Amino acid sequence: MEEPWKDFDFDEDDDSASSGSAAARLESAAVAAYVMAEDADALDCGVCCLPLKPPIFQCDVGHVVCSPCRDKLKDTGKCHECGTATGDYRRCHAMERLLESIRFPCPYAAHGCTAMPAYCHKQSHRQACSHAPWRCPGKGCSFVGSSTVLLDHFTGEHGWPCTTRTRAGKTCRCSIRLSDGFNFLLAELASDGEGGGAATTGRYLLLLNVTRQEVGRAVSVLLVGRKPSAKALKCVLTYSRRLHDASEHQKFVGSHLLQSEINVECWDYLSSGLPGPEDCFQFVVPDFVLGEDKEHAIQIKISVSVHDLE
């Protein structure tokens, strides 16, 4: 791919010179405008094809690579593009400043997001953006909106119970009552940034679908929307019940404890329909465990956390 800045001078020795600085800024602006309009993928690393982000390195000719690819190419001793002996790639601060100056509107601007993230942060912003539109999972319903608007739609149009839990940490723990049918939990969780970067916060809308089966109550869990590609969303469901003998002054008899850990799958808002409960992992609470509570909503403890894929 022809790089639009190929002939641009990235020599760091000229940074302190005042002469020509205005011209350099104009040239940088022209390059940025060209890239935004014509060839945004030229801002990607030529080796891994991911968006370039600081620190960025260059060979003596000026071909740039990201830091992880620089480390992988170090043993070869030559540039991946031109084959020039590198010895060691040099830090390209000018390219880093140029990338930080190139801003893109959020793809969810039509849904209310006014952010203008730098190109190298566009994907991480997209994954965490609270304005991302999701489709209502109701049968025959075509409503699409952000998480906040969608929750109002769930309660106002469908009468589905919704719970919101915001946590500053990486795990959300709460106890909720689950009725038959759709139940929703909106969890705001922190996770480590890519490549050891700063922690990011994401919103995760969980659909907990409760169905009645011959043996008891079954709960399946789906993520409405998307999760970061390098992350795994885990959900632990727990049901417990203590039994007492009413004829002997509430003497403790025993207790039931059921627990399952679920690797939550995504249901993308553009998909044609929800998978059936039989196609999902199910957390089953038998009727004999529920006892007299089997005709009512069940109290479940839930823990949601985000993990890096191994």
TrEMBL record:
PROSITE patterns cross-referenced by the UniProt entry: ZF_SIAH (PS51081)
Pathway: Protein modification; protein ubiquitination
GO biological process: protein ubiquitination
GO molecular function list: ubiquitin protein ligase activity; zinc ion binding
Region described as Disordered: spans on this chain: 1-21
Class of enzymatic activity (EC top level): transferase
Catalytic reaction(s) noted: S-ubiquitinyl-[E2 ubiquitin-conjugating enzyme]-L-cysteine + [acceptor protein]-L-lysine = [E2 ubiquitin-conjugating enzyme]-L-cysteine + N(6)-ubiquitinyl-[acceptor protein]-L-lysine
GO cellular component: cytoplasm
Keyword presence, Zinc: yes
UniProt KW Cell inner membrane keyword: no
Entry's EC annotation: 2.3.2.27
Keywords for this protein: Metal-binding, Transferase, Ubl conjugation pathway, Zinc, Zinc-finger
Domain SIAH-type: from-to ranges: 101-159
Family, per entry: Belongs to the SINA (Seven in absentia) family.
Name by which UniProt lists this protein: RING-type E3 ubiquitin transferase
Organism the protein comes from: Digitaria exilis
